[in-house]
Amino acid sequence: MSPSPAGTADDRYAHVEAAIGVVEASGLHYEVGALGTTFEGDPTAVWATLRAAHEAVLSSGADGLITNIRLGQRSADDTSMDGLTAKFRT
Question: How far apart (Å, rounded) are the C-alpha atoms in residues 56 and 19?
């Protein structure tokens, strides 16, 4: 998830931090990156968190918002975001 809010002249990250706060409170496993936040979990919880994070940015006072979402799901696979990236971590 990578929200790109408009109307952030005073504090470039205030609205993005509102979205991250929702993800933190969700209980989902997540990682904040320089260009977006990755999280994983039950599909119903993921969808609810995506919507809540998007709405949190608007509620925090952003003039507008475009949220870029990339979703991946596998039916019979236990691959995790940590499993996909572990070999690249130092």
Answer: 6
Q: Which two tokens stand for residue 54?
A: 């998007």
Domain positions in the chain:
2-88
Domain 2-88 has CATH 3.30.70.930: yes
How confident is the model over 21-57, as pLDDT tens digits?
999 999 999 999 988 999 999 999 999 999 999 999 9
* Predicted TM-score of the model (pTM): 0.84
> Can you spell out the DSSP letters for the chain?
-EEEEE--SS-TTHHHHHHHHHHHHHT-EEEEETTEEEEES-HHHHHHHHHHHHHHHHHTT-SEEEEE------TT----HHHHHGGG--
pLDDT of residue 72 exceeding 90 = no
